[in-house]
Amino acid sequence: MRAMVKEFQTFLLRGNLVDTAVGIVIGLAFAALVKAFVEDLITPLVAAIFGKHDFSFLYFTINGSRFLYGDFINALITFLSVAAAVFFFVVKPVNALMARRKTEPPVDETVRECPCLSEIPVAAHRCAFCTSEVAIA
């Protein structure tokens, strides 16, 4: 029984599990922030442009069936707003930070393109595919 408790403790304190838990907590906090951003800033902007802040009342009827395309428009606006917020406030800044932290030198190319659009080794004088002579750059 003690060994199982010890194994369970090791499992809980493993780095991946802790990192995942932290990511989920941060993700939930970010989701609340984005939800507030959409509800408090984007929705009033949509209301100012279109005159209504909610499209859920839009529908059409065919043979007694209601098609609520307004709900779809609401969901689409929310999705696009969330995707834009994530892209501009998370992905772009993180990519910029990672690019600044990159310390490895650029990798030398081992192949280059021939005029026939095939790839040939950098030191090659002649293309193996079209047999034309290619100057070494």
Protein described:
The chain is mainly alpha-helical and 137 residues long. It has 3 helices and 4 strands, in the order ααββαββ. It has helices at residues 2-12, 15-50, 69-101; strands spanning 60-62, 65-67, 111-113, 119-121. The protein has a two-stranded antiparallel sheet. A hairpin with a 5-residue loop joins strand 3 (111-113) and strand 4. Helix 2 (15-50) crosses helix 3 (69-101). It is extended and about 70 Å long.
Considering the chains and any ligands shown, give keywords for the structure.
two-stranded antiparallel ribbon; extended; 3 helices
Structural class, by secondary structure, is: mainly alpha
Strand count? 4
Helix content: 55-70%
Strand count, sense and barrel status of the largest sheet are: 2 strands, antiparallel
User: Could you give the order of strands across the largest sheet?
Assistant: 1-2
Amino-to-carboxy terminus distance? 69 Å
- State which percent range the strand residues make up: 5-15%
* Mean pLDDT over the full residue set: 80
